[in-house]
């Protein structure tokens, strides 16, 4: 059986079988995803150190490359970068431990101040809550009597305690030996130290074998498509390195400023809170508020009044707003490539899967998934769901709003586009492509009459809303050949204004070719011609029908523009041209083929002018026709000689 036979056989497969195959594929994909998530959960003891090692390797790789550029041997460069990096981490950890111990020693001295402030707040609110407190106390005593009737008896209004009092019993453990004490101290440290050692070893080997690991990954992913695999690796590496370095710089600066500010305010253990603010700021959205809780409590406990608390609140709020609204948009830009919703979802997912470490690794791991989805076709849904790229292109968005009958959002999209572009550019690049999408669905029979009416009504409302729009003035001087009239012969003298005949209402009659989408195109083209100073009008979709065609007033028309968004046939165009030629009196007939250029057809007649392209191309041709027809025709010397003969 040849290829055509296989294609015919595929077309004859019943839809029910195709639907079952689709469902089977979806179930298989869900099962695979479930197995992957299960493996990530149960293998977290191994995968978490590996993920941390990869994270640190991306951070330290630029420094290793810089050391190698200074002619430092690779092994020595790796060891120096790892030693310096982990020395900084261990130093910060030691500083946090010392500050925490110092704070633990000073906390008892702050209890009385905090207790006095709480009592003061209770005194302020006591007037409104004293009755509720007394009622609550009575209910608690009544509940105690109901559940413990033998606890005591009331005689003459006095409570008598039972005679039998409990005998205090104290259980003492024997003094532990030296070995037991040592085991009790070391046991909690075994797992963190083991994880840290594994991370350090992995980082060293990843940095030393970076090229070899890259080559093996390319071979594993598919050496036949090296271009795509290399692009994915480069994209992931650049994004992750830039993201980590920027996060470290911004968060370290934020923590430093917090520590300095708290030290000036007088909050105890200011370096500790600066380090905590730096670490927690890696947690998206909620990290900074969480890091501010304990400094605020300490500020309330240390200060005699409320000034220290207010200054601490102002410090965190000011720095957070400045960092989030000014610094991060300039530093990060689009380096992460994640949408805000994806950041929240990924943080929740990886925290549930791997705990607190998963919260720190959520953003880089999700960036890797987005990069994979961007370069692997079968995983493209990851880029769509998690990436920061718009889910729909502007033409798709305007078409979707047409289907929904929502001209408000479509007009808002147009206003956003028109802030930096002209109205004709919006019609050419967005609205026309949206109409082409609608025509493609209509050709496949996916648009019923109701949806087609919605599309047409939405276009009418958007065009009406943009009627009063004024384009921003163009400062640049256009070169010769860029304007519509500059494309005419340079030795031709043209009128400086639109001829009077072409200014009359209905001078350019835009007629839909065969449907409501063509009517939408005719409405847009008529507005463009009107804004250019020509008298243009648009007819409805049934203008060429037998019931309406003979009632059309074509006496004022100097040109007829028949608009087609779809793919008309030669016979359809020639039939329409013959009907217009009989009824019109010398008007120019222009066929505007606004569909894709691959679908365009060129009629085989010389009585009409055909233009293939967008609205601007059609408007330029009509304007050129208007100015050419108004030019006085001067006889040439050859014509004078022929007339004399």
Present the secondary structure layout.
Blueprint: H1 3-11, H2 15-42, H3 44-69, H4 74-147, E1 153-155, E2 158-160, H5 178-208, H6 210-222, H7 226-265, H8 270-280, H9 287-291, H10 293-302, H11 307-331, H12 340-354, H13 356-375, H14 380-386, H15 394-404, H16 407-418, H17 423-443, H18 449-465, E3 508-512, H19 516-531, E4 536-538, H20 546-549, E5 559-564, H21 570-583, E6 588-593, E7 609-612, H22 615-629, H23 637-644
Parallel strand pairs: 3-4, 3-5, 5-6, 6-7
Antiparallel strand pairs: 1-2
Helix pairs in contact: 3-4, 3-5, 3-7, 3-13, 4-5, 4-8, 4-10, 6-7, 7-8, 7-11, 7-13, 10-11, 12-13, 13-14, 15-16, 15-17, 15-18, 16-18, 17-19, 18-19, 19-22
Would you summarize the structure shown here?
Helix 7 (226-265) packs antiparallel against helix 11 (307-331) and helix 16 crosses helix 18 (449-465).
Key structural traits:
645 residues; mainly alpha; five-stranded parallel beta sheet; two-stranded antiparallel ribbon; 23 helices; 67% helix; elongated
Rounded mean pLDDT is 76
- What portion of residues is helical? 55-70%
The helix tally amounts to 23
Radius of gyration: 39 Å
> What general form does the structure show?
elongated
Q: How much β-strand is present in the residues?
A: under 5%
Domains (count): 5
What is the spatial order of strands in the main beta sheet?
4-3-5-6-7
- Extract low-pLDDT stretches: 1-13, 15-19, 154-158, 475-494, 632-645
Note the main sheet.
Answer: 5 strands, parallel
**Which class do the helix and strand fractions yield?**
mainly alpha
> What is the tally of beta strands?
7
Distance between the termini: 74 Å
Tell me the series of helices and strands, N- to C-terminal.
HHHHEEHHHHHHHHHHHHHHEHEHEHEEHH
């Amino acid at each position: 059986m040849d290829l055509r036979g296989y294609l015919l056989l595929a077309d004859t497969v019943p839809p029910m079988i195709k639907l079952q195959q689709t469902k089977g594929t979806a179930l298989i994909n869900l099962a695979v995803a479930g197995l992957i998530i299960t493996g990530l959960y149960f293998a977290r003891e191994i995968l978490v150190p590996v993920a941390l090692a990869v994270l640190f390797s991306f951070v330290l790789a630029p420094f290793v490359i810089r050391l190698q550029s200074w002619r430092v041997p690779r092994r020595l460069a790796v060891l120096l970068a790892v030693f310096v990096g982990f020395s900084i981490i261990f130093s910060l950890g030691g500083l946090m431990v010392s500050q925490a111990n110092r704070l633990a020693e000073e906390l008892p001295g702050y209890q009385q101040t905090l207790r006095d402030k709480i009592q003061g707040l209770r005194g302020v609110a006591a007037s409104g809550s004293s009755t509720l407190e007394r009622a609550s106390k009575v209910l608690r005593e009544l509940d105690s009597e109901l559940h413990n009737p033998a606890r005591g008896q009331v005689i003459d209004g006095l409570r008598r305690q039972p005679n039998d009092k409990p005998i205090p019993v104290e259980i003492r453990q024997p003094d532990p030996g030296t070995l037991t004490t040592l085991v009790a101290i070391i046991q909690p440290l075994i797992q963190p130290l083991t994880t840290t050692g594994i991370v350090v070893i992995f980082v060293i080997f990843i940095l030393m074998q970076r090229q070899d690991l890259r080559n093996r990954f390319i071979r594993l992913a598919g050496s036949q498509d090296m271009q795509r695999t290399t692009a994915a690796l480069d994209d992931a590496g650049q994004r992750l390195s830039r993201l980590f370095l920027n996060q470290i710089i911004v968060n370290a600066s934020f923590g430093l400023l917090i520590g300095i500010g708290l030290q000036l305010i007088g909050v105890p253990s200011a370096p500790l809170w600066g380090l905590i603010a730096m670490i927690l700021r890696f947690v998206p959205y909620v990290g900074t508020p969480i890091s501010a809780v304990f400094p605020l409590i300490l500020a309330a406990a240390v200060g005699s009044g409320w000034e220290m608390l207010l200054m601490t609140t102002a410090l965190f709020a000011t720095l957070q707003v400045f960092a989030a609204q000014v610094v991060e948009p300039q530093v990060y830009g689009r380096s992460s490539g994640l949408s805000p919703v994806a950041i929240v979802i990924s943080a929740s997912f990886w925290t549930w899967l791997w705990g607190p470490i998963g919260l720190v690794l959520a953003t880089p791991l999700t960036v890797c998934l987005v990069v994979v989805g961007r370069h692997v076709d079968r995983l493209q849904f990851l880029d769509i769901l998690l990436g920061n790229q718009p889910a729909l292109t502007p033409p798709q968005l305007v078409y979707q709003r047409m289907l929904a009958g929502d001209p408000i959002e479509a007009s808002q999209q147009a206003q956003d586009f028109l802030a930096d572009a002209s109205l004709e550019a919006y019609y050419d690049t967005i609205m026309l492509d949206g109409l082409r999408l609608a025509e493609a669905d209509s050709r496949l029979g996916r648009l019923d009459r109701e949806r087609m009416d919605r599309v047409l009504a939405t276009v009418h409302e958007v065009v009406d809303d943009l009627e009063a729009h004024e384009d921003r003035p163009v400062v640049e001087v256009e070169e010769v050949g860029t304007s519509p009239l500059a494309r005419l012969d340079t030795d031709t003298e043209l009128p400086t204004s639109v001829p009077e005949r072409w200014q009359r209402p209905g001078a350019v009659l835009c007629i839909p070719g065969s449907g409501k989408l063509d009517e939408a195109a005719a409405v847009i083209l008529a507005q463009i011609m009107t804004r250019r100073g020509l008298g243009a009008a648009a007819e409805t979709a049934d203008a060429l029908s037998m019931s309406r065609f003979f009632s059309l007033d074509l006496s004022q028309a100097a040109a007829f523009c028949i608009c087609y968004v779809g793919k008309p046939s030669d016979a359809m165009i020639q039939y329409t041209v013959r009907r217009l030629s009989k009824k019109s009196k010398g008007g120019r007939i222009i066929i505007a083929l606004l569909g894709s250029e691959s679908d365009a057809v060129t009629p085989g007649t010389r009585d009409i002018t055909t233009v293939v392209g967008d609205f601007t191309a059609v408007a330029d041709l009509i304007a050129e026709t208007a100015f050419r027809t108004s030019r006085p025709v001067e006889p040439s010397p050859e014509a004078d000689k022929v007339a004399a003969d």
